[in-house]
Amino acid sequence: MASSHDRVGISAIGKRFSERGSALIISLMLLLVITILGLALFDLAQIENKSAAASLADYRAFELAQAGIERGIRELQNGFIGDVYGSESWTDGTPACTPGCNANTYSTLNLANTTIPAQTVTNFGTDPGGSYTVELKLLTVGEANNPISAGYSYPHGVTCFTASTKALVYPVPATDVCDNLAFLRSTGTVNGPPGYSRSRTIQVLVRASSTSPFAAGLTVGSGDGLGNPVIEGQVNIGGGINVLGNVNSNPAIKLIQGSQMWNNWSQLEPTSVTYLRPRQRICPVGTDCTGGANLVESLEAELKVYGNLTHLMVDLQNTSNLGQVGSSACYGAGCPGSGRLGKGPLDGVYVADGCPLPCTSTAFSFGGGSTLTVDGSNITKPYPFRFPGPPLARADIATPTFPDLTSPVTIAGTAYANYQLNFWATHAQAMNGGTYPDIGGSLSGPGLDSSIASFSDAVSWMDANGTAQTGFICWDQATNTLGFVGNGNNCATPNTTPGKFLRPSNPMLLNGNHQFIVNSPGISYRGAAIWSTRQVRLDGGLTAFSDGTGAAGCVTDCFPDDHLLVLMSDFSIDIATSGNVNRVMAFIFSNNNVLSARHRVYLSGAIAAKISLCFQSSSAGSCSVGAGVQPPQFFQANMYDPRNLPAALFAPSGLSGERWRVTPVPRFWLECRVGPTDPLPTTPSGICSYQ
Questions:
Q1: Bridge partners (DSSP) listed for residue 493
Q2: Tell me: the pLDDT tens digits for 502-554?
Q3: For residue 616, what are the β-bridge partners?
Q4: CB-neighbour burial class of residue 117 (10 A; exposed 0-12, middle 13-18, buried 19+)
Q5: CB-CB contact of 89 with 180 (8 Å)
Q6: How many CB atoms lie within 10 A of CB 366?
Q7: Between the CA of residue 552 and those of 84, 139, 335, 546, 619, what are the distances in Å?
Q8: 301, 496, 553, 592: which sits with the fewest CB atoms below 10 Å from its CB?
Q9: Which helix (H) or strand (E) holds 210?
């Protein structure tokens, strides 16, 4: 019989063998787990690499699509600038599409060099390269003005110009194709290894706009440089404001005592309304315009102010309101049943670097219950470009100066280093009181009014193309009318003779070394002239001839398309200094001094000033305007088609893209929601629709 010692030894040996087996099993299990985890981590790394590669390809495709949009905009701008002045259009085959550019469907824009080759970026990576394809679709007027009428869900309606607007046809046929409005759609594609190819598609509506201050409302330069406002006082404004400002402006705009800013002509006195061709009616933001309901006229008014990012830019006091909620009350002939409605909110607000939400920026001050009403309540957008130069952030580029009478300019294909010295002095008729005693004894002396006897002065000038022209300045005492006559006619020619009075396409050019003074109650004028003078004082009305009446608007004789006076001066321009004035209808430019308006006057047209605009009760810096019973009122009234602006007017030049700028229309940027197998629609609809 074995001893107990032997029995214990055998038991211990068995136990040790059992423990070793368990350890082996555990080790094998751990090895299996580690192997599985290793494989999982390896697969995860592979997935992460694939995900990173896919994200990189996706991002690269998006950037390529953006590049295509930028390329398309540049091609469209080149096409506009390359056209003969007054004939600018995207319907003329420049740029070209395959098949031809049209308003029905997207067509491929003919572009070279749209492929970017792959390139090694670092020792460990490459840029896969890729390509972009740009498509273009034109729009009809009906589609642009009221998209729902054409079966589209665009964010809002937009105006445009066509062959009909060029010919002053009203209303514009809905079937006309817009010359300055087009959809661009760009698809960027990255072709990588299998599984890494990506495509992204971006769509945007772009528009060509004139950069001329005479195609705007109030346009003001940099001020006195001492920090004083460039626009100050009590004034009501119907139209847009564009302020260049400077880094010292604090504020740039100061509106007081309940000043107002409107986006329509509803507050313009009724007679002046009949002198202006109606604007295209559009569907405003957030409005149901089914069946043509709720369409409004819009002045496309924007508030744009460049300036120091840390200073107060817009100071509103005493319930001064910019923009209104909803549409205006009915105005014009036919109210209330068939009259006109005006848009209430401003189209856009672009001040300094914007007002990032929640808008604690110092750029705005709303005192005394003042308000600002803009589409989408959006005041976050920065100033888009320093008029007329590069974007705000491009401090590395020499910023062009505000366009003035000494700026370089290109007219009729000829470049002039200095508008005033090289073009104006050689083309306009030089005038002074000695050579033209009638002018010296009226406009430059006591002022022109009904006490001045009729006179006729022969003048000669060269038009924008350098062709010699002759004509007459005619003053008719009986009708208080100043006429600008040409085309072989004279003052005695019957007024009903076609072509007697010059048109804005070929205005009289007058370089006057004299004052331009109009006394109460004022005068009328017929024809077209660009007149540079010394001091301007308008204490009487300056009304363009019109065939409009209280019952109906003008047809063949409208301001400013048929009758236009442009006043330019290096000296002060003072309006309504001694009392109310019924109306002033003109384009006015103050080159090196201030423009002031004190009492009630209805100013229609365009106003540009290099230094300051001073209105009632202003006192900062160079502004010194007394109080009055009622404030002056300005209403933006531009050419029915900006291509009809006189070619002899100065315009921006250089980095701005010359006379035209092509930019995206706000709210129309969209990435099409394209799935892996989705074909792109032929119109801005479906996966490329706006919702």
A1: none
A2: 999 999 999 999 999 999 999 999 999 999 999 999 999 999 999 988 778 89
A3: 234
A4: exposed
A5: yes
A6: 16
A7: 35, 31, 12, 11, 42
A8: 496
A9: strand 198-210
Full DSSP string of 560-594: TTTSEEEEEESS-EEESSSS-EEEEEEEEEESSSE
Where do the structural domains in the chain lie, given as residue ranges? Answer: 53-210+662-688, 409-607
Residue 657 has pLDDT above 60, yes or no: no
Task: Report the candidate in 83, 197, 253 with the shortest Cα–Cα distance to residue 620.
Answer: 253
Contacts of residue 48, Cβ cutoff 8 Å, sequence gap at least 6: none
pLDDT tens for 160-217 read 999 999 999 999 999 999 999 999 999 999 986 666 678 999 999 999 999 899 999 9
d(CA 440, CA 415): 34
Which residue in this structure is represented by tokens 């195609």? Answer: 215
User: Comparing 388 with 320, which gets the higher pLDDT?
Assistant: 320
Strands (E), 334-404: 348-351, 364-366, 371-372
Residue 351: partners with Cβ closer than 8 Å, 6 or more residues away: 303, 304, 305, 307, 313, 314, 363, 364, 379, 382, 383
Run of H or E including 6: helix 4-82
Tens of pLDDT, residue by residue over 555-578, are 999 999 999 999 999 999 999 999
User: Beta-carbon neighbour count of residue 673 at 10 Å?
Assistant: 12
**Which amino acid does the sequence have at 146?**
N
Please check the confidence at residue 634 and state whether its pLDDT lies above 90.
Answer: yes
Helices (H), 103-159: 141-145
Whether the per-residue pLDDT at 52 is higher than 70: the answer is no
Compute the distance between CA of residue 373 and CA of residue 348 in angstroms, rounded to an integer: 9
Compute CA 36 distance to the chain's CA centroid, rounded to the nearest angstrom: 63
Collect all residues with Cβ–Cβ distance below 8 Å to 359 and sequence separation of at least 6.
379, 380
Residue with tokens 């006394």: 519
What digits encode the pLDDT tens for the residues 594-610? 899 999 999 999 999 99
Residue pair 606/646 in contact (Cβ under 8 Å)? The answer is: no
CA distance 60 to 36: 35
From CA 317, how far away is CA 259, in angstroms rounded? 8
The Cα 616–Cα 597 span in angstroms is: 7
Rounded distance, CA 185 to CA 610, Å?
Answer: 39
Cα 80 to Cα 75: distance, rounded to the nearest angstrom: 9
pLDDT of residue 396: 44
Kindly state the DSSP code that residue 242 receives in the 8-state scheme: E
- The residue count for the chain: 691
Strand 198-210, strand 660-664: pairing: antiparallel
C-alpha–C-alpha distance, residues 451 and 500, integer Å: 25
Q: Of the candidates 606, 604, 565, 588, which has an alpha carbon nearest to the alpha carbon of residue 482?
A: 565
Which of 500, 498, 496, 497 shows the shortest CA–CA distance to 488? 500
The string of pLDDT tens digits covering residues 82-98 is: 899 999 999 999 899 99
DSSP H stretches of helix in 151-265: 163-166
Distance from C-alpha of 355 to C-alpha of 643, rounded to nearest angstrom:
35
Is residue 28 predicted with pLDDT exceeding 70? yes
453, containing H or E segment: none
Tokens of residue 157, six digits: 């309606």
Query: CB neighbours of 659 closer than 8 A, spacing ≥ 6?
Result: 81, 85, 210, 211, 212, 651, 652
Q: If phi over 0 gives left and psi between -120 and 50 gives alpha, with beta otherwise, what is residue 86? A: left
Q: What is the pLDDT of residues 251-302, one digit of tens each?
A: 999 999 999 999 999 999 999 999 999 999 999 999 999 999 999 999 999 9
Give the pLDDT confidence score for residue 14 in this predicted structure: 55
Looking at the whole model, is its pTM more than 0.85?
yes
Q: What percent of the chain has pLDDT over 70?
A: 89
